Amino acid sequence: MYKAPVEEIAFTLRHVAGLSAALANGRLGDLSEDLVDAILSEAGRFAGEEVAPLSPIGDTQGARLVEGKVISPDGWVDLYKAWCAGGWNGLTGPEEFGGQGLPHMLNVATLEMWNSASIGFTLGPTLTIGAIEALMAHGSRSLQERYVEKLVSGEWTGTMNLTEPQAGSDVGALKTRAERRADGTYRIFGQKIYITWGDHDAADNIIHLVLARLPDAPAGTRGISLFLVPKFLVNEDGSLGPRNDLFCHSLEHKLGIHGSPTCTMIYGDGRFGEEPGAIGWLVGEENKGLACMFTMMNNARLAVGMQGVATAEAATQKAIAYARERTQGRAPAWGGAASSAQAASGMSPIIEHPDVARMLVTMKALTQGARAICYACAHAIDLSHRADGEEARHFQERAALLTPIAKAFATDVGVDVASLGIQVHGGMGFIEETGAARLLRDARIAPIYEGTNGIQAIDLVVRKLPLSTGAQVRGFIAELRQVAEAVAASNRDGFGETASRLSASLDDLEAATDWLLTRQAEGALAEALSGATPYLRLFGLALTGAYLAKGALADAAHGAEQRIALCRFAAENLIAETAALKDRVIHGAASLAAARVLLA
Amino acid sequence: MYKAPVEEIAFTLRHVAGLSAALANGRLGDLSEDLVDAILSEAGRFAGEEVAPLSPIGDTQGARLVEGKVISPDGWVDLYKAWCAGGWNGLTGPEEFGGQGLPHMLNVATLEMWNSASIGFTLGPTLTIGAIEALMAHGSRSLQERYVEKLVSGEWTGTMNLTEPQAGSDVGALKTRAERRADGTYRIFGQKIYITWGDHDAADNIIHLVLARLPDAPAGTRGISLFLVPKFLVNEDGSLGPRNDLFCHSLEHKLGIHGSPTCTMIYGDGRFGEEPGAIGWLVGEENKGLACMFTMMNNARLAVGMQGVATAEAATQKAIAYARERTQGRAPAWGGAASSAQAASGMSPIIEHPDVARMLVTMKALTQGARAICYACAHAIDLSHRADGEEARHFQERAALLTPIAKAFATDVGVDVASLGIQVHGGMGFIEETGAARLLRDARIAPIYEGTNGIQAIDLVVRKLPLSTGAQVRGFIAELRQVAEAVAASNRDGFGETASRLSASLDDLEAATDWLLTRQAEGALAEALSGATPYLRLFGLALTGAYLAKGALADAAHGAEQRIALCRFAAENLIAETAALKDRVIHGAASLAAARVLLA
């Protein structure tokens, strides 16, 4: 069973992502180290003891559509209410509407725990947080006053309605219509697919944020507006009025996250209300909906990255526990010494076998790396809001740069580590009751939604590398080089070749970055995009090496030996791949272009 | 829907794996090119038109245990009978018992097609083929005469009973007991798990080959004997007698291959028969059961490798078809020219996007590479039986060397390519109805069973590299170098950097091989085993590069341009990874040993 790695999470927040420095600099108000510890420790308890036990039923029973109503898995409604009662839904919510206004780093850290316990369950609150952010950033004061408090308390939940059958990655292709009404409201007509928690029975109302197109709107992404469309209309006094003209038409039958209802939503077909049309209110300005949606999407992308970290953590815990118990064969003596742990049968716990140990340490290293990247991204988001002027701008860019890496690298890690977790279990890994397979099934969506990982890679190359004409990414690489130099200066044997390996990976990163910026400047977009995915992977691996080293250097206490050993393993076993990735970025496009003859 | 790539399969058999040369040399009796074509083409038709359509019901309905009987998915029993009536079950079976005695290459090629259509369905016949091989190699004449004909016709099926809860990879730990009886038979008592097609309703009888231990047997693998234990006892005249004392206790609830019943089998608990004990007949000699089982296992390992190839092929076909139809966004102009294929909407088919094209070409290259490796292994098996003296010994070693690579590399490719296939589908990939997710679920078992891929890597390093004191592997690498030289000599621009890239990968392979042989000779087993998995991957990638080049050089006809383009893509995008893999083999062990502190 999952046990939240509270210490590791706290350490990474403090010493790798920058929480301690931000606290010391007064950037995070009156937040104290003690409060951080209390929050993490209580969240860890709740995630492990309350949420995780209800994950299997979510998977086997799933969300069901019964007579037009979406029914949650047994126990989930009570779980959701207890979770809200614990104040978790409002952790980062605005204080004026009952939230605790805590930094995003704490949101991300607790999101990791909830998602390790159950991605399907956590998706609901994740979408609600996004809706709150969008309303606070772009909604009118009256919309905020009517909706935000109950979203913060969790009495109501939120959704994000972008996708339509013909409009996925290309959101500009959407066709859902919005018509203006004389009273300032709008009527929404159309079909949305893949709407997470689009309907359910855990909250009294559901506040849909829906992208739609006005009749006179320009084509493409410049003609999209965002609307708030509640399931139940809300009276002046905040009480619930009649049902709005929208409903969940069907649920998807998915590979994983079965407990999370993935809905096809129909707006405005006349099933409810006096005349057809779901009543909506404009959020932000007409035709500026995409900008509003990006507010939700950026944080949602990081939240999805956390699903990757969370799966990797849960899978690693499960695999290590199994590998300690399961005995098979006799492990070879390591380094000449007889193996210490050998069962009476003469068989060794499989954790003693080098190949199994390689899988487990790889899982640990990738998990920690992905975690550090995501937390660093959250830290940058926090400081982009809480610092001023140039510093705020810097962190805004840093967050923008890190977001696609956090989303795509961490979700790829989630899938890879979950798959390794199955492998460690052998035949048991393929049996559903073990739970290892569920982790892979649940994790497999994360590289797809909130912008496929291919889209993230394109975003990184096309929009993020050019920030400040490349100064942001170059400055970042320079920071990372300081870590490599500090490892070299530390003169600790345990680091092995870490300094030189990390330095070589950063050379690869810099060379690939320069090439991509140059090719784009020269207008060779297809060439640059051909290397986008390998480049993102290269960036993620180099960051993994650097952040593990940063943590190892920061730990002067009992954990140092372990951190140094993990960092060395990553440096000497994992990040050497950056050379091949750089090669793919710089030399791979020509052969890919030639190979298009195979796809004609 | 799956369409068997008959031409590609035939080409790979002939020009990459060596079928044409073997035919020309008269090594394959009176087999003709025409017969090969006829078999492949009819198998392709049957796989695509008859088997593939019944794959989804196998997945959704699954095999069910109802009142003690295992019921096949709707339509599967008729499908199985039609498949047997087509003669497919006896393709390589011994001619004296009604088989066609064809080379193993044809078995493997058709196995690919059946598995692309449905792994769950194909598992039944795959096990039967293994049982036939074991009985022909080790069974007494009377056992052969009583059982083989009906196994060849498919009226009866076969199983392989190795695993017990405490004995998986470590088969020597098994506890199932066998007791001698005065009449020369044995009584079997025990529990076996993960028994594929252990019970079902598609055939009249099921012939279990069961590993068990005699009371006076030595401990470990030297005390294991193999027994034939039929579900129904067989009378002198071949008719079926009473039920033997064995039954299927339960079916596993698995991630995939739902149509294939994975049974827990109970032997000898007294449910059937006059006294407890399942009646069995010794196959081979007492305490020599493991050698008999290896006969089944080696071919079964290659057959599992084919599941990887088959999944990769099916996933690639499905992804390409989707990527041609699905439009999203506007693809960049490739090489300065405007994209040719753009839908009227202004959106491009996603196949035009570089990142999607990269995924698809990667899928194609890995699929072809894995296919060539497996077919080459089958060719070596054929010649080990059909050549003489030194040549037979050489091919026996070649088959032994290639088997773990075929099994592990191909099944890893199956999982990776199936996962890429999901990614190409975007959100649709996560929806079960699309079928892309099923391919991943079905494929995920293949790296586990028949010896986990970790076990394959150990086998490769510990048992296969030392064959002929390393001369076998060194000779193989020398052969592969000739391919690189032939590419260089061909002077065709289309190959790009193929020659130098391939040559560099072979340098990596040679260096890693030398290091592993040396370290083992020095007794540093744990160090060598630490690099086993990266080494196997390195070998598989280098072979992929070499075999794609061999195919490209051999194709003087219309396919040459495509083969050269694919080969170049593999050389310039995929096999550069061998440098990092070599590094992991040679330098990775020290940091892995140090990182064991994390697992304590």
Automatic annotation (TrEMBL), chains A, B:
Protein name: 3-methylmercaptopropionyl-CoA dehydrogenase
Residue ranges annotated for the Acyl-CoA oxidase/dehydrogenase middle domain, each copy included: 160-266
Domain Acetyl-CoA dehydrogenase-like C-terminal as annotated: residue spans: 477-594
Molecular function (Gene Ontology), one example: flavin adenine dinucleotide binding
Function statement: Involved in the assimilation of dimethylsulphoniopropionate (DMSP), an important compound in the fixation of carbon in marine phytoplankton, by mediating the conversion of 3-(methylthio)propanoyl-CoA (MMPA-CoA) to 3-(methylthio)acryloyl-CoA (MTA-CoA).
Cofactor(s), by name: FAD
UniProt domain Acyl-CoA dehydrogenase/oxidase N-terminal: residue ranges: 39-155
Catalytic activity field: 3-(methylsulfanyl)propanoyl-CoA + oxidized [electron-transfer flavoprotein] + H(+) = 3-(methylsulfanyl)acryloyl-CoA + reduced [electron-transfer flavoprotein]
Keyword Nucleotide-binding: no
Domain named Acyl-CoA dehydrogenase/oxidase C-terminal: residues: 347-459
Residues making up the signal peptide according to the UniProt record: none
Keyword vocabulary terms for this entry: FAD, Flavoprotein, Oxidoreductase
Family per record: Belongs to the acyl-CoA dehydrogenase family.
Pfam hit, one: Acyl-CoA_dh_N
Known EC number: 1.3.99.41
